[in-house]
Amino acid sequence: MTPYSHEFRHQLFTATALGSVVVLALVGAGAGYTASQVTLSEIQTVYTYSDGYHFLVYAIGSQGTAFSGASLVLWINSSATFQPPIAVERGATDASGLASFFFAIPNGSYLYSVLAIGAGIQTETGGQTNFNSNLSSGTGVLLDPVSLGTWATDRAVSVTALNATGQAPVGYQIRYIVGSGAYFPFIGVTPENATTLFTTLSGFQTNAPWNVSFAAPSITWVEFEAFTPSGASAGVVILSATELLTTGVSSAGASAVSSLSAAQTLVALLGLVLGYARYGKDRSMRTVESVLWRPVTREGLFVVRWASVVIPLGGGLALLLGLTDLWMTSVLSAGIPLGALLALFGVLLAEGMAMAGLLMLGSHLLRSRGGVIGLGVGLFILFGVFFTIFVALVAFGTGATDPAQVLVNAAYLNPMQLMGPATAVIVPQAASNSSGMGLAVPLNLSTTVTANAGVVAAVVSAWFAVPTLVAFVLARYRE
Amino acid sequence: MIEWQAASKDYGGGSPPALDGVSFTVGNGEIVGLVGLNGAGKTTAMRLACGISRPTAGTVSVDGHDIRREKVRASARLGWVPELPNVDPDRRALALLRYFAGFYGLSAPDAKRRAQELLRLVGLEGSERTRVRKFSQGMMKRFNLAAVMVGDPSNLLLDEVLNGIDPQGIQFVRNWATELRSQGKAVLFSSHQLTEMQRIADRVVFLHRGRLLRVIHRSELENLATGETRVRLRIPNLDSAGLAYLTGLGQIARAGDALELTGRGVDVGQLNRDLVSRGYVVTELQVEATSLEEYFLRLVAGAG
Questions:
Q1: What is residue A283's three-state secondary structure?
Q2: CB-based contact (8 Å) between B88 and chain A?
Q3: Which of A408, B107, B157, B234 has the highest count of CB atoms within 10 angstroms of its CB?
Q4: pLDDT tens over chain B, length 304 residues
Q5: For residue A293, which residues of chain B lie inside 8 Å, CB to CB?
Q6: What angle do CA A79, A81, A84 make, to 5 degrees?
Q7: Beta carbons of A290 and B88 less than 8 Å apart
C-alpha cells in the first residue's frame, strides 16, 4: 500500500466521513418518504338533477393525481340552517378518484356538504343547489385544473373534464389558448379559430386527467375552454402564470425538491465539518507537520485530503438522491428524471465542496483551531443570512437600481442556494417574473444576463473549484 | 547521510535570513551536535531537511535524494523529532502510531505489532489507549521518539529532544542515539544541554544568526575549548616514573591512586596508549574537558 492510498483509506474510514454518508442517506430516505406521501389535497363536487340529485365527488391527491380510497360523507339539508339532514350518504372514491351519490329528492334548493377523509387529512366543501345544475346548461362540462406544472424541462398542466355523471361528454371539444403578458379576460368569447384543439371527448372519464405541455418559456397564461358539438362554449378555466408555474405546483418532483431543500443546508454544514476534520484542523494546529515530513508531498497530501472530503459527500449525495428517487418510483411509479438528478447532484456537491474549500483555504490563513472553527461558523452564518445584504450593498454601490433584481442576483451567487438556479433551469418557474430572472456577474452587479444552464454551470463550477484551487496553491507554497 | 549545501532560508519581511548559505554533512554512523543560541537556525536547518520548509537557496539531500525534487524517497529515509509536539492531541497513542506506520508500507497487523513494540520500548506500555493530549511533557517526548522510529529511518533529526525529560529519559535518549550510531545511522542532534552533547556527539556544528560558525570534532573540541583538558585517572600500580611522565603533560593533583591531570593539548587517546604500553593498569580514565558551554559562549561572543 502506498503512503497515499494508506492516507486516503485512513481519512475515509473515519466517524465524520462515514457519519456524513449515513446522515445524507437518511435525509434521502426521508425526502423519498415525504415526496411519496400522497395525501388528500382537495375535492371537487359537481351535481345535476335528473329524477333526483346526482352528485359526483372527485378527490385530488397532493401530487395532483386522483386520490382513491377517500372516505366521503355527503349531507343534504333543507335550505334552512340547523335543520336535521334530509339525507346522508357515505362512500369512497374509486381508483379514478371518483365517487357518485344519488338522492331521490325533488328538484329544489338545498344545502349540501361533503366531508372527505383520506391519509389522516380531512377536507370539506359544500354549497347550495340554487339551480338545476352547477354545470352549464345542465349538460355542460366542468374543466378542472388538477395539476399545474410537472417535474420536467417544460411546463405542463393537466385538466379533467367531467359532466354530471362523471363522464366526458361525447363530441365535446376542449380547446386551449396560451399567451404571454397580462391575460385579457374574454371569458367564453374566445374565437374558436384562435384556439388549439386539445382533445375531443369520447367516453368515460377513465383516462383523466389529460395533460398538455408547453415548451415556450414565455407563456404566462393558458385558457382551456370546452365546446359543445354545435360550437357553443360549455365551460372555461383560465390559469395565470402564478398558478401555472410557481408554488401551486403539486407534482411529485416539486414535492421532492421541497423535501430536498433541507439537504441544501445540511450539505453546507457537512462540507464545513468535513473540510475541518479532514484538513482544517490539522492545518490550523500545524499537526499536519507530523505527516508532511513522512514520505508524501505537500500537494499529494492535499489532494488526498480533498478527495476524502469529496468522496463521502459525493457518495452521501448519490445515496440521498438515489433513495429519494427510488422511494418515489416505487410508490408513485414516477421518479426524478436522470438529467435533473445529475443536476441536483452537481449543485449540491458543488455547494458542499465550496464550503469545504473555503474552510480549507481559511485554515492556511488562520493559525489556530478556534480561528478555523469560528471561520466555519462565520461562513455558515454569512451565506445563510448575510450574503444577500452583502450583495445588495455591493450591487447598489455599483449602480444597481432594482431591489428585486438584486435579490435574485444574490440568490444566484450564493453557494448555499445553488439549488435555486439549477432548479430554475430544470423547471422554469419564472414566467410571471421573467424580467426579474437572471444572473449578475459579480464585477458589475447591475448587469443582468439571462439564467441558462451554461451560466448556472459556470457559477456552480466556480464555487466548486476556485476556493479549492487557491487552497491547493497555498498548500503547495505556503509553509 | 544528510547534506546541507549552501542552504539558505529567508522568510522575508525585512528580517535577516533564518539560515544563510549553510553547508555541512551528517555522515552515516555519526552523531552530529547542532549548537546555537535561540534563533540561530537550528530548527530551520532541520525543517529544511525534512521538507517542512523549502530552502530559498541551496539544497538539502538525504542519502543523495534532494528533499525538494525527490521528497518521497528522501523522506522515506528520514525521521524527525520536533522540538514541540506536532501530533494530533486528540488521537490515542496506539492508533496514531499505527497510522504513522502505514506510511511505510506496513500491513495493519504489522503496524499494530510495531506500534505496540515501540510503545514498550519508550516506556509507554499501558498508555496504548490514552489520548496523546493527556501525556506529560516527558511522555510526549517519548511518544515522539516512538513516532519517529516507526519508519525505521536511516537518518534522524532530533530537535531539542532532551528538553523536559527526566534523567532516566535523558539516559534513554543517550543510549538510543548511541545505538543508532552503532547501526550506521546518521543522527543530527540539537540541544542546549551541551554537557550531554559533549558526551555523545562525534562532531559539533555551531550556528549563529543563520550562519555556520564552526564545525569541530569532539577530540578537537576538548583541546580547543580552553586549551586545557582535565583527565581523571585511577592507576593502582603508578610509580615515580609514571608520575614523572604524567607531570610532563601537565599539573597533577593526587589522592591515593586517583589522579587529576590538567594540561594543554592533552591527547587522551595517546595518553591511554602510553600508559598501557608502559605497563600501567588504568582502571579509570575520565575526561573532563572544559565545558563546551564556555567554549560556545566564547565562540558566540567572538562572532558578535
A1: helix
A2: yes
A3: B157
A4: 999 999 999 988 888 899 999 999 999 999 999 999 888 999 999 999 999 999 999 999 999 999 999 999 999 999 999 988 899 999 999 999 999 999 999 999 999 999 999 999 998 999 999 999 999 888 898 999 999 999 999 999 999 988 878 888 888 888 999 999 999 999 999 988 877 887 889 999 999 999 998 888 876 666 655 567 778 899 988 888 998 999 888 888 888 788 888 887 777 788 888 898 999 988 888 876 566 776 777 777 777 6
A5: 50-52, 75, 78, 80
A6: 90
A7: yes
Is A479 close to B54, i.e. CB distance below 8 A?
yes
Among A377, A368, A396, which Cα is nearest to A280's? A368
SS3 per-residue string spanning chain B: CEEEEEEEECCCCCCCCCEEEEEEEECCCEEEEEECCCCCCHHHHHHHHCCCCCCCEEEEEECCEECCCCHHHHHHCEEEECCCCCCCCCCEHHHHHHHHHHHHCCCHHHHHHHHHHHHHHCCCCCCCCCEHHHCCHHHHHHHHHHHHHCCCCCEEEEECCCCCCCHHHHHHHHHHHHHHHHCCCEEEEECCCHHHHHHHCCEEEEEECCEEEEEEEHHHHHHHCCCEEEEEEECCCCCHHHHHHHHCCCEEEEECCEEEEEEECCCHHHHHHHHHHCCCCCCEEEEEECCHHHHHHHHHHHHC
In tens, the pLDDT along A87-127 reads 899 999 887 778 889 888 887 888 888 999 987 778 888 87
Note whether A226 and A206 are within 8 A (CB): no
Q: How many Å lie between the alpha carbon of B101 and the closest alpha carbon of chain A?
A: 10
Rounded-to-10 torsion of CA B159, B165, B166, B169: -60
Radius of gyration of chain A (CA): 29
Q: Which residues of B touch A287 (CB under 8 A)?
A: 86-89
Q: How many whole angstroms separate alpha carbon B197 and alpha carbon B204? A: 8
Which domains does chain B show, CATH number per domain? Answer: 2-221 (3.40.50.300), 226-303 (3.30.70.980)
Question: Is the C-alpha dihedral spanning B56, B58, B62, B64 positive or negative?
Answer: positive
Contact: A297, B72; criterion CB under 8 Å? yes
DSSP 8-state code for residue A419:
H
- Report the distance separating Cα B176 and Cα B196, nearest Å: 13
Rounded to whole angstroms, the Cα distance separating B153 from B146 reads 12
Cell triple for residue A334?
Answer: 414516477
A1 neighbourhood in chain B, CB within 8 Å: 102, 105, 107
Q: Which of B78, B86, B151 sits opposite A290 (nearest CB)?
A: B86
Selection from A31, A253, A255, A262 nearest residue A153 by Cα: A253
By DSSP bridging, strand B57-62 and strand B65-66 are: antiparallel
Grid coordinates in use for A81? Answer: 340552517
Cα→Cα distances A455→A186, A450, A460, B229, Å: 39, 8, 9, 81
Chain A interface mutation, best of B103, B107, B157, B188, highest count of A Cβ atoms under 10 Å? B103
- For B36-63, letters b (16+ CB in 10 Å) and e give beeebbbbbbbbbbbbbbebbebbbbbb
What type of residue sits at position B69? Answer: R
Q: Where are the domains of chain A?
A: 3-36+250-477
Return the C-alpha cell found at A47.
351535481
Contact A256, A151 (CB under 8 A): yes
Phi, psi (deg, nearest 5) at residue A267 = -65, -40
The A residues from 286 to 345 touching B (CB cutoff 8 Å) are 286-287, 289-297
The CA distance from A43 to A57, in Å, is 7
Whether the per-residue pLDDT at A164 is higher than 60: the answer is: no
Q: How many Å apart are CA A17 and CA B54, to the nearest integer?
A: 32
Q: Which of residues 3-42 of A touch B (CB under 8 A)?
A: 3, 6-7, 10
